[in-house]
TrEMBL record:
Transmembrane segments: none annotated. PROSITE patterns: PROKAR_LIPOPROTEIN. InterPro entries: SusD-like_N, SusD_RagB_dom, TPR-like_helical_dom_sf. This is Membrane protein. Residues 284-550 form the RagB/SusD domain. Its main location: membrane. It comes from the Bacteria. Residues 54-211 form the SusD-like N-terminal domain. It is found in: Cell outer membrane. Keywords: Cell outer membrane, Membrane, Signal. Belongs to the SusD family. The keyword Metal-binding does not apply. It comes from Pedobacter mendelii.
Length: 555
């Protein structure tokens, strides 16, 4: 469904109302009458495609990592991640409240009117099911960020109709869950259709929602439904000469040729799952925000600009923290013990690292080399002979000392297009489902063979050893292991923001961040009211019913 929501956008906006003001405050004057629309199957298809605009530019989910302990977002004009991480949170910030209601209005308009279109019974059911799941996902996103929110289930004619009391967070989530459950039977069971809501995407999102709200038994069932549909982790089983371009021999000790082969296959499998060349047959992608380059409708994936270093044409907008780099395991699967910050700074030697500095990056998790640019990292696939050197200071250089390599397609088609990468961005992939299954089942009943198998699937794909079941043998130990594994596997994909809140660890991890010279990057402050974001003041001005809930949240 490449760009399908962009192609439909202009027409569908006219059909469903302009919504340019983003906060549901005006009745559109340019909408077509529902009596003149919905005359053909194409009308219904265009209207549904416009609903999928909710997933356009989903690469901006990476900013949620910048609002967590995973990353630092250095430009406050690009997103709210910078003030959120710093604790400068108040009602002047709109963390997606207004924009999400724009899409809820579209879904409701679609659901109220699609029955007028001449669709077959099967297509009508599928279209309705897709719109219901989109609406459920959007309400889940609203509730997990803001807590109680107005629950609007039908289209409206007057703005005053939206000025209702917020529904409790629990009731909004129960509505979202029930909507997905009622829709899933009418969805396409195809697994390689990552641009649309399929049965697999619905079950995967159910698992995500249920895990977020500690409905562990239900999350296990939903994850098992996805596991039964034929999804699998992306693996590259045959290496090419290009896959061996980057020489990591100075960082890794290989026991033999087979050990080296395992590393390079793990490296290729993990990093190349996000490349445009592997999208069409990638059975790991359950739902993705799809992009093409050189479109006359919109730009493509912006991470090609936001992630890389300035010498690669990037802006270093969102960069890994030292704490994230420390989280990657050792090659043998053990936890990494980092040096003291002052020792690291001494070893870095003002940009002339000594041997002790390089030791910090030796024999680490394969995903570290696939995901993070640290000083000395080779990346010949993006630029022949390239080796990352941190340019401390301004000029679109990283502030932390690291850049993200993950999620950046180094192919010429993508790497030469500023702000216009052709690769898709994963909204939900099978690895997350395996992690959700593992976490939920461990919380229910502790370690068992099915949990270890799911985790080993993820780890061996990346060339890492299986879980040490002798050492990781209690619910508490496995919980800590799964949480760190989830952090590593999903780094940069925007899940960490929600994770540190649902685990109630934000107070422990949202600490002042430092660069590799032990200089302060950002002073961070945590207050427990930050578990939920405030409603934006513009929303309160339009709906006085939000005032009490705002006060209850502590704002």
């Amino acid at each position: 469904m490449k760009k399908i929501f962009y192609i439909a956008f202009v027409f569908a906006v006219i059909a469903m109302g302009s919504c340019k003001k983003s906060d549901l405050d005006y009745v559109p004057q340019d909408q077509l009458s529902s009596n003149s629309f919905w005359k053909t199957e194409k009308d219904a298809t265009l209207a549904l495609n416009a609903c999928y605009g909710y997933f356009s530019n989903a690469y901006s989910n990476a900013y949620d990592d910048g609002a967590s302990d995973n990353a630092y977002a250095q430009y406050p004009w690009e997103s709210n991640a910078t003030p959120i991480a710093a604790g400068n949170i108040n009602a002047t910030i709109d963390q997606g409240y207004g924009s999400r209601y724009v899409y809820i209005r579209r879904y409701n308009y679609f659901l109220d009117n699609v029955s007028k279109a001449p669709l077959s019974v099967a297509m009508m059911k599928r279209y309705v099911a897709e719109a219901k799941v989109l609406r459920a996902i959007t309400y889940y996103d609203l509730a997990r960020v803001f807590g109680p929110v107005p629950l609007l289930k039908t289209a409206y004619a007057e703005p005053s109709e939206t000025a209702i009391a917020p529904t409790s967070e629990a009731d909004v989530i129960n509505f979202a869950i029930s909507e997905i459950q009622s829709a899933v039977a009418d969805l396409n069971p195809a697994i390689v259709q990552s641009g649309r809501i399929t049965a697999g995407a619905a079950w995967a999102f159910l698992a995500r929602i249920q895990l977020q709200y500690q409905k562990y038994a239900d999350a296990v069932v939903s994850a098992e439904k996805v596991k039964s549909l034929g999804y699998q982790l992306f693996r590259k089983n045959t290496l090419t000469a290009d896959d061996l371009t980057d020489d990591f021999s100075s960082y890794l000790t290989f026991a033999n040729a087979a050990d080296k082969d395992k590393f390079y296959k793990g490296l290729a499998s993990y990093e190349q799952q996000f490349w445009a060349a592997n999208e069409l047959d990638n059975k790991e992608l359950i739902l993705a925000s799809q992009n093409i380059s050189n479109s006359s409708y919109d730009y493509g994936n912006g991470l090609r600009t936001l992630f890389p270093s300035s010498d690669l044409g990037g802006w270093s907008s969102i960069t890994p923290t030292q704490d994230l780099v420390n989280a990657y395991w050792n090659k043998n699967g053990d936890a990494f013990t980092p040096p003291a910050a002052n020792v690291r700074a001494t070893n870095y030697n003002s940009g002339k690292p000594n041997a002790a500095y390089n030791d910090e990056f030796k024999n680490r998790d394969t995903r570290l080399y696939a995901s993070i640019l640290f000083p000395g990292t080779p990346w010949g696939r993006i630029n022949a002979g390239f080796s990352f050197a941190w340019g401390k200071g301004g000029g679109n250089n990283s502030v932390t000392g690291y850049n993200f390599k993950k999620l950046v397609d180094p192919s010429p088609e993508s790497s030469q297009n500023e702000w216009d990468g052709s690769q898709d961005f994963p909204i939900i992939r099978y690895a997350e489902v395996l992690l959700a299954f593992s976490e939920a089942k461990n919380e229910l009943s502790g370690p068992d063979a099915t949990i270890y198998a799911a985790l080993d699937d993820i780890r061996t794909r990346s060339g890492m050893p299986a879980v040490n079941q002798t050492a990781i043998n209690t619910k508490e130990k496995l919980r800590d292991f799964i949480r760190n594994e989830r952090r590593i596997e999903l780094a940069g994909e925007g899940q960490r923001y929600a994770d540190i809140r649902r685990w109630n660890i934000a107070i422990d991890v949202m600490k002042t961040t430092y660069d590799i010279t032990n200089s302060i990057v950002q002073t961070r402050v945590w207050d427990n009211k930050f578990m939920l974001m405030p409603y934006p003041q513009t929303a309160i001005d339009r709906n006085a019913n939000l005032k009490t809930a705002q006060t209850t949240k502590g704002y």
